Amino acid sequence: xxxxxxxxxxxxxxxxxxxxxxxxxxxxxxxxxxxxxxxxxxxxxxxxxxxxxxxxxxxxxxxxxxxxxxxxxxxxxxxx
Length: 80
Hints:
- The protein is α/β, with parallel strands linked by helices.
- It has a single domain (8-76), classed as 3-Layer(aba) Sandwich (Rossmann fold), CATH 3.40.50.10190.
- Helices cover 34% and strands 18% of the residues.
- The protein contains 3 helices and 4 strands, in the order βαββαβα.
- Strands 2-1-3-4 form a 4-stranded parallel β-sheet, with helices on both faces.
- The longest helix is centred in the first third of the chain and has 10 residues, at 19-28.
- The protein is globular.
- The two termini are 14 Å apart.
- The model has no long low-confidence stretch (mean pLDDT 92).
- InterPro entries: BRCT_dom_sf.
- This is BRCT domain-containing protein.
């Protein structure tokens, strides 16, 4: 999985980092931050994929890739 500028990312649940910081990192990397999961969302960042949160359920139904916070941090640091 490679994140690329222009991809759409959403966030759901609780994180160790502040959500605003994660969203800011995503934007600096050229990612578009969505408020909700839609058909156009490429990645959902959620630490608990089994939480039953509406965004997680939507991602599973729509086939949106799920990443936890740590994996997101690794990948977003590689975006050119």
